[in-house]
Amino acid sequence: MEHQRSDGNPKTARVPSGAAVMRAEVTTALTRSFFEEWARTGYAGLSLERVARTAGVGKAALYRRWPDKESMASDLLSHVGLTMTDVEQHGSLEADLYAVLVAIRRVLRHPKVRRILTDLHVEIERTPALGTAIRPLQRARRERINGLIDRAIKRRELSPMVDREMAADLIAAPLYWRMAVLGGRCDSAYIERLARITGAALRADTV
Amino acid sequence: MEHQRSDGNPKTARVPSGAAVMRAEVTTALTRSFFEEWARTGYAGLSLERVARTAGVGKAALYRRWPDKESMASDLLSHVGLTMTDVEQHGSLEADLYAVLVAIRRVLRHPKVRRILTDLHVEIERTPALGTAIRPLQRARRERINGLIDRAIKRRELSPMVDREMAADLIAAPLYWRMAVLGGRCDSAYIERLARITGAALRADTV
DNA sequence: TCTCAGCGGAACGCAACCGTTCCAACGGAT
DNA sequence: ATCCGTTGGAACGGTTGCGTTCCGCTGAGA
Lengths: 207, 207
Hints:
2 copies of one chain form a homodimer. Chain A is built from 10 helices and no strands. The first copy, chain A, has 2 domains: about 5-75, Homeodomain-like (Arc Repressor Mutant, subunit A, Orthogonal Bundle), CATH 1.10.10.60; about 95-205, Tetracycline Repressor, domain 2 (Orthogonal Bundle). By secondary structure, chain A is mainly alpha-helical. The first copy, chain A, starts with a helix and ends with a helix. The model of chain A is unreliable at about 1-20 (pLDDT under 50). Chain A is elongated and about 60 Å long. The interface of A and B includes residues 118, 169, 178 and 197 of A. Chain B binds a DNA duplex through helix 3 and helix 4.
């Protein structure tokens, strides 16, 4: 049982003689269907049989790539691209906050992403491997918020004693709560207001 | 097919002559097992067969009470008691906030409650009836926060123009995010700090 | 052009759960 | 003491998914 995607590179592993190779289009179709079904049924109700079927692919093609659902999810999640708009240079804490909040909204606006993300957060309690897989993504978000705080401290807008952990909670939580948990909308005016108020909260954290 | 608990009162319905009645202890055991299993496997993976088994009860006893999983969940959820410590009278906005946050923490500290609640939030997207069932609970939480804001306005600590919806998000979200989503701990110092900072945020919302 | 692994598709045995039905036993209301 | 619906338990047929295996075909590397 070699499962190249689980613990090696995807589809160019081991070509001993003049022979075939796993076709990238099949892998792509399986990946698409996997996330599609995940958003539709949730992780627990996710059936690899149905993933293969909706991908228009035989089950064997799927099981040749991944041994089971957990491995497939971990592998696919760990390959999710992090399109980070590197370091932004806005003038003030509030402007930085606004930019970060807009970035979070951009992610949470996709219904499929929103469903998968919330479902994932719940499922991690039951399947710790999933948590390991998305750790790099979490780290990226955290780094971005840390950068924001560093710049604000350098600008003397925040105290150097500010609680970074709590700050990260304060920034991400309200938007996640409103959009992902309550399923509510959120226009630019809301974001702007939220940025202003969050800024005030952070400024108040002076130990 | 009469399902008394689904659309009538529980176990005293229709006693035509000298006869038996559904036993309350069986209903209790089923209820316990239902939530137990829910916390363990999640709603999607919840099996009524297993619920009956772990309750030490025949499947017939369960199906005599509820027609299916959704009805059972809705019914049980709508009977969850809301132990609200009515109206608290603390001196300041921050003291009120602290009390509300402690109350939220008290709920989210129970691992089973935490799991069921997060799972429920995800499942509502797929099963709207569950949302209807917990609406009274949500309303209670919202009323409590509204009361807190009203008192603060009366004390002239907050502007009458404060955005109540956003305020509700600001108060509940960080704690939910930290405890339920990230699975983190949170001591009294954290709560105290959070209350102070949230107070600053609300005071800053003056339109 | 040849070769061979990946391909779609179908089927396998196994397991779990659904919702229903039957039974003998129990237990509470009268 | 009698009655009658509930009880635990077992079994039903049907559905779904798992992970494996086999087939004949296809398509890309040599």
